[in-house]
Amino acid sequence: MIEFYSAATPNGQKVAIALEEMELDYQLHSVDLMANEQKQPDFLAINPNGRIPAIVDRANGDFPVFESGAILLYLAEKTGQFLPSDPKARSQTIQWLMFQMGGVGPMMGQANVFYRYFPETIPAAIERYQKEGRRLLEVVDKQLQQHPYLAGDSYTIADMATWPWARIHEWSGVDVSGLDALQAWLDKLAARPACQKALLTPAPDEATDDERAEQVRGMVTR
Questions:
Q1: C-alpha angle with apex 10: 66 to 21, nearest 5 degrees?
Q2: Which of 120, 157, 191, 212 is a plausible cystine mate for 207, CB 3.0–4.6 Å?
Q3: Residue 212, pLDDT score
Q4: Cross-sheet strand order for the sheet of 26-30
């Protein structure tokens, strides 16, 4: 049994995809970010950084793992799935996973903050992160023009990590016009049952976009 601590965010969704794709038995614990549950002592004992997602592997001595990329690697190695054993193919998968962790996620996340949530409108910051988000998605598109998946011919944890962030480009205000290979890949993964279920694990709250932006704006200014 995997204890899975998450919220309805791209970083949480990438781990939900992996758990579903790998057909692992897990128990979901929905973390209320607005109530600051991720900063409570019980959660900090699992992830000292106070961020979702995190897991506890009950079958491995109650072993905790935090950071979404580290969780994906841990689960792939635990199950022997979605991470090639060939050294070169394995390295390619990890490279694209790190590309998401260090680039796509942080830049799209900052675009979200300054475009949707920051209490002040700072055009230079919005333009910076939206342009960088577009540039990174152009890199993804170029790779997908040559390969069906990010790391090559096989669907891997690199795709699981990148899809939840790339799919919200419109929310981030990032234009993807002309990136046809990217859009085809987004649609292909959106058809996977595991990806569909992950978007509801946990389900988003029923707040309107404006209400959600106001809630997150309060978190940003804490």
A1: 75
A2: 212
A3: 52
A4: 26-30, 2-6, 54-57, 63-66
